[in-house]
Design goal:
By secondary structure, this protein is mainly α. The chain contains 5 helices and no strands. The longest helix is centred in the N-terminal third of the chain and has 20 residues. About 25% of the residues are buried.
Length: about 90
Amino acid sequence: MRIADAGDVRAVSDLSELISLCSQLRAEDVEGDGALWAATAALLGSGRLDEARAALRLRGDAAPLDAAARAAAGDAAVDGALAAHSGRVR
């Protein structure tokens, strides 16, 4: 099922934020996109990512996103996702 077909505007908004913020991070050569991907996947559509994304966007601080992902999905899942991400990026 497509996310847009489910009618969940928050999930679509989260994906839009993911794309936008990843683009900003790349343009500014700032780390943190792995935590952003992990948190977005773990909390998609929950409406609980705004403050953590702002910390990354404004201060380059990915720790709140990492913590949110770990709280939602667990350390093992996040560690696996970050390892896979680092193998595909850069």
